[in-house]
């Protein structure tokens, strides 16, 4: 997997996370709709809980993104692809 695709994937995830955190997206997906955006555990969470979960996951995604940029075998292993 090329670095460009790794960066595009991170950019798309970051856009969703930004929308949930800063643009009021957590209020929009609050309730049963959060199952499809956040996960099945979030169906009864309020918007603040969704925002906290999103913030934590964004930090984890950022760490994995940086590690994947620096280490190609780790990036491939994270995606379940064989090392080249």
Automatic annotation (TrEMBL):
Alphabetical keyword list: Membrane, Transmembrane, Transmembrane helix
Transmembrane segments: 18-43, 50-70
Name under which the protein is recorded: Nicotinamide riboside transporter PnuC
Organism this protein belongs to: Faucicola atlantae
């Amino acid at each position: 997997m090329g670095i460009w695709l790794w960066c595009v994937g991170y950019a798309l995830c970051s856009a969703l996370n930004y929308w949930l955190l800063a643009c009021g997206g957590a209020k929009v997906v609050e309730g049963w709709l959060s199952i499809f955006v956040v996960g099945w555990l979030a169906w009864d969470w309020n918007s603040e809980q969704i925002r906290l979960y999103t913030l934590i996951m964004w930090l984890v995604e950022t760490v994995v993104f940086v590690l994947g940029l620096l280490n190609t075998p780790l990036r491939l292993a994270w995606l379940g692809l064989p090392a080249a």
